[in-house]
Design brief:
- The protein has about 190 residues and is mainly beta.
- It folds into three domains: about 1-60, SH3 type barrels; about 65-125, Nucleic acid-binding proteins (OB fold (Dihydrolipoamide Acetyltransferase, E2P)), CATH 2.40.50.140; about 130-185, Nucleic acid-binding proteins (OB fold (Dihydrolipoamide Acetyltransferase, E2P), Beta Barrel).
- Helices cover about 0% and strands about 55% of the residues.
- It has no helices and 16 strands.
- Strand 3 (about 20-30) and strand 4 form a beta hairpin.
- The relative contact order is 0.14.
- This is Elongation factor P.
- Pathway: Protein biosynthesis; polypeptide chain elongation.
- Keywords: Cytoplasm, Elongation factor, Protein biosynthesis.
- Pfam families: EFP, EFP_N, Elong-fact-P_C.
Length: about 190
Protein backbone atom coordinates (compact mmCIF):
# COMPACT_ATOMS: atom_id res chain seq x y z
CA UNK A 1 0.00 0.00 0.00
CA UNK A 2 1.18 3.47 -0.84
CA UNK A 3 0.02 6.88 0.35
CA UNK A 4 -0.69 10.11 -1.46
CA UNK A 5 2.90 11.25 -0.85
CA UNK A 6 4.04 8.44 -3.21
CA UNK A 7 1.97 9.78 -6.13
CA UNK A 8 4.01 10.56 -9.24
CA UNK A 9 3.43 10.67 -13.00
CA UNK A 10 3.21 7.19 -14.48
CA UNK A 11 2.22 5.45 -11.22
CA UNK A 12 -0.41 2.75 -11.77
CA UNK A 13 -3.05 2.41 -9.05
CA UNK A 14 -6.17 0.34 -8.45
CA UNK A 15 -9.16 2.67 -8.01
CA UNK A 16 -12.92 2.00 -8.34
CA UNK A 17 -12.32 -1.64 -9.44
CA UNK A 18 -10.15 -0.54 -12.37
CA UNK A 19 -6.45 0.17 -12.98
CA UNK A 20 -5.55 3.80 -13.61
CA UNK A 21 -2.31 5.50 -14.59
CA UNK A 22 -1.59 8.92 -13.06
CA UNK A 23 -0.94 11.39 -15.86
CA UNK A 24 -0.89 14.63 -13.82
CA UNK A 25 -0.84 15.49 -10.12
CA UNK A 26 -0.59 18.52 -7.87
CA UNK A 27 -0.03 18.57 -4.10
CA UNK A 28 -2.09 21.42 -2.65
CA UNK A 29 -1.70 22.86 0.86
CA UNK A 30 -4.31 25.57 1.26
CA UNK A 31 -3.98 28.20 3.95
CA UNK A 32 -7.09 26.92 5.66
CA UNK A 33 -8.11 23.27 5.79
CA UNK A 34 -6.29 20.00 5.18
CA UNK A 35 -3.85 19.30 2.33
CA UNK A 36 -4.95 17.26 -0.69
CA UNK A 37 -3.63 15.88 -3.97
CA UNK A 38 -5.43 16.77 -7.22
CA UNK A 39 -4.86 14.12 -9.93
CA UNK A 40 -5.76 13.23 -13.50
CA UNK A 41 -6.20 9.46 -13.87
CA UNK A 42 -6.32 7.58 -17.18
CA UNK A 43 -7.96 4.16 -17.24
CA UNK A 44 -5.63 1.60 -18.82
CA UNK A 45 -8.59 -0.61 -19.85
CA UNK A 46 -10.77 1.89 -21.72
CA UNK A 47 -8.65 5.07 -21.98
CA UNK A 48 -11.15 7.29 -20.14
CA UNK A 49 -9.57 10.20 -18.21
CA UNK A 50 -11.04 11.30 -14.88
CA UNK A 51 -10.15 14.02 -12.38
CA UNK A 52 -9.90 12.95 -8.75
CA UNK A 53 -8.88 14.56 -5.47
CA UNK A 54 -7.30 12.49 -2.70
CA UNK A 55 -7.01 13.80 0.87
CA UNK A 56 -3.39 13.98 2.08
CA UNK A 57 -2.17 10.78 3.75
CA UNK A 58 -4.85 8.56 2.23
CA UNK A 59 -3.79 5.01 1.41
CA UNK A 60 -3.88 4.06 -2.26
CA UNK A 61 -3.40 0.61 -3.75
CA UNK A 62 -0.53 0.69 -6.20
CA UNK A 63 -0.13 -1.95 -8.90
CA UNK A 64 3.27 -3.62 -9.24
CA UNK A 65 4.44 -3.15 -12.83
CA UNK A 66 7.43 -3.98 -15.02
CA UNK A 67 8.67 -1.92 -17.94
CA UNK A 68 10.02 -3.47 -21.14
CA UNK A 69 11.35 -1.98 -24.37
CA UNK A 70 9.33 -2.92 -27.44
CA UNK A 71 9.62 -2.00 -31.11
CA UNK A 72 6.48 -0.78 -32.86
CA UNK A 73 5.91 -2.97 -35.92
CA UNK A 74 2.63 -2.02 -37.61
CA UNK A 75 -1.07 -1.20 -37.24
CA UNK A 76 -3.60 -3.53 -38.88
CA UNK A 77 -6.54 -1.15 -38.39
CA UNK A 78 -7.76 -2.62 -35.10
CA UNK A 79 -4.59 -3.57 -33.23
CA UNK A 80 -1.11 -2.10 -32.84
CA UNK A 81 1.62 -4.77 -32.98
CA UNK A 82 4.84 -4.60 -30.93
CA UNK A 83 7.92 -6.86 -30.62
CA UNK A 84 9.94 -7.35 -27.42
CA UNK A 85 13.60 -6.45 -27.99
CA UNK A 86 14.95 -9.19 -25.66
CA UNK A 87 13.06 -12.35 -26.65
CA UNK A 88 11.39 -11.20 -29.91
CA UNK A 89 7.91 -12.14 -28.68
CA UNK A 90 5.07 -10.09 -30.10
CA UNK A 91 2.03 -8.50 -28.48
CA UNK A 92 -0.87 -6.54 -29.86
CA UNK A 93 -2.75 -3.72 -28.17
CA UNK A 94 -5.93 -1.78 -28.81
CA UNK A 95 -5.70 1.93 -29.56
CA UNK A 96 -7.17 2.78 -26.10
CA UNK A 97 -3.92 1.59 -24.44
CA UNK A 98 -1.87 4.13 -26.41
CA UNK A 99 -1.58 7.78 -25.42
CA UNK A 100 -0.85 9.31 -28.84
CA UNK A 101 -0.73 6.56 -31.50
CA UNK A 102 -0.72 9.02 -34.41
CA UNK A 103 2.86 10.02 -33.62
CA UNK A 104 4.36 6.50 -33.70
CA UNK A 105 6.23 5.48 -36.82
CA UNK A 106 7.19 1.92 -37.67
CA UNK A 107 10.43 0.83 -36.00
CA UNK A 108 10.03 3.28 -33.08
CA UNK A 109 11.22 1.99 -29.69
CA UNK A 110 8.59 2.43 -26.94
CA UNK A 111 8.29 1.41 -23.29
CA UNK A 112 5.37 -0.86 -22.43
CA UNK A 113 4.22 -1.08 -18.82
CA UNK A 114 3.15 -4.64 -17.92
CA UNK A 115 1.22 -5.71 -14.80
CA UNK A 116 3.57 -8.17 -13.05
CA UNK A 117 0.66 -10.08 -11.43
CA UNK A 118 -1.02 -11.27 -14.63
CA UNK A 119 1.47 -10.18 -17.37
CA UNK A 120 -1.14 -7.98 -19.05
CA UNK A 121 0.14 -4.85 -20.86
CA UNK A 122 -1.26 -1.72 -19.22
CA UNK A 123 0.02 1.20 -21.28
CA UNK A 124 2.56 2.35 -23.83
CA UNK A 125 4.94 5.23 -23.14
CA UNK A 126 6.37 6.97 -26.21
CA UNK A 127 9.70 8.80 -26.08
CA UNK A 128 9.42 12.42 -24.88
CA UNK A 129 9.69 13.67 -28.47
CA UNK A 130 9.85 12.22 -31.98
CA UNK A 131 11.29 13.55 -35.24
CA UNK A 132 8.83 13.36 -38.13
CA UNK A 133 8.84 14.58 -41.72
CA UNK A 134 6.12 16.96 -42.94
CA UNK A 135 4.32 15.37 -45.90
CA UNK A 136 1.66 18.02 -46.57
CA UNK A 137 1.20 21.67 -45.62
CA UNK A 138 0.64 25.02 -47.28
CA UNK A 139 3.83 26.59 -48.66
CA UNK A 140 5.85 28.51 -46.09
CA UNK A 141 6.91 32.12 -46.36
CA UNK A 142 10.59 32.89 -45.77
CA UNK A 143 11.16 35.28 -42.88
CA UNK A 144 7.71 34.71 -41.37
CA UNK A 145 8.94 33.95 -37.85
CA UNK A 146 7.89 37.05 -35.90
CA UNK A 147 4.33 36.00 -35.08
CA UNK A 148 2.98 33.00 -33.23
CA UNK A 149 0.62 32.13 -36.07
CA UNK A 150 0.38 28.44 -36.96
CA UNK A 151 -0.98 26.27 -39.75
CA UNK A 152 -1.91 22.57 -39.85
CA UNK A 153 0.66 20.14 -41.25
CA UNK A 154 0.33 16.41 -41.92
CA UNK A 155 3.36 14.36 -40.86
CA UNK A 156 4.59 11.01 -42.21
CA UNK A 157 2.50 9.00 -39.71
CA UNK A 158 -0.74 10.68 -40.84
CA UNK A 159 -1.17 12.84 -37.74
CA UNK A 160 -1.90 16.56 -37.99
CA UNK A 161 0.30 18.97 -36.02
CA UNK A 162 0.03 22.77 -35.84
CA UNK A 163 3.35 24.25 -37.03
CA UNK A 164 4.70 27.80 -37.57
CA UNK A 165 4.12 29.45 -40.96
CA UNK A 166 7.75 28.98 -42.16
CA UNK A 167 7.57 25.14 -42.19
CA UNK A 168 7.45 23.54 -45.67
CA UNK A 169 6.79 20.07 -47.03
CA UNK A 170 9.83 17.84 -46.58
CA UNK A 171 11.02 19.61 -43.40
CA UNK A 172 11.75 17.44 -40.37
CA UNK A 173 10.17 18.64 -37.14
CA UNK A 174 10.45 17.61 -33.50
CA UNK A 175 7.05 16.88 -31.91
CA UNK A 176 6.37 16.50 -28.18
CA UNK A 177 4.49 13.21 -27.77
CA UNK A 178 2.51 13.93 -24.60
CA UNK A 179 0.61 16.91 -26.07
CA UNK A 180 1.28 16.37 -29.78
CA UNK A 181 2.72 19.87 -30.19
CA UNK A 182 5.47 21.25 -32.42
CA UNK A 183 8.80 21.93 -30.66
CA UNK A 184 11.36 22.85 -33.33
CA UNK A 185 12.52 22.35 -36.91
CA UNK A 186 15.41 19.89 -37.32
CA UNK A 187 18.14 20.89 -39.77
CA UNK A 188 20.27 18.16 -41.27
Amino acid sequence: MATTSDIRNGLCIRYNNDIYKITEFLHVKPGKGPAFVRTKLKSVTNGKVIDNTFPAGRKIEDVRVETHKFQYLYNDGEFYHFMNEQDYSQIRLLEAALDNPGLMKEGEIVTIIINSEDNMPLSVDLPASVILEVTHTEPGVKGNTATNATKPATVETGATVNVPLFINEGDKIKVETTKGTYQERIKE
